[in-house]
Amino acid sequence: YGKDVIEKEVSAIELASPDQVTEINRLVEILKPSEEDVQKIWNKAQAAAWSELTTEQAGKVIEMYAKKLSK
Questions:
Q1: Which pLDDT belongs to residue 1?
Q2: Which of 14, 3, 44, 7 is nearest to 64 (CA)?
Q3: Which of 38, 60, 61, 68 measures 20 to 30 Å from 47, CA to CA?
Q4: Angle at the Cα of 58 (from 32 to 6), degrees rounded to 5?
Q5: pLDDT tens-digit profile of 19-37?
Q6: Model confidence, pTM
């Protein structure tokens, strides 16, 4: 690793808010995606639960499921 990697500005990772997790769970209950689909999302996000997503990732999941719901 180079000096710039070691001295790079630290940025905090903000995890999904409880409200985001609640909304994802609500949408999952309604849409009932397959376990395989959920696993794909978690694998892509390197997470093992909805609460381990970042706020950005959770926002994208909510947006995706909300679009599916509105169809």
A1: 57
A2: 44
A3: 68
A4: 140
A5: 999 999 999 999 999 999 9
A6: 0.84
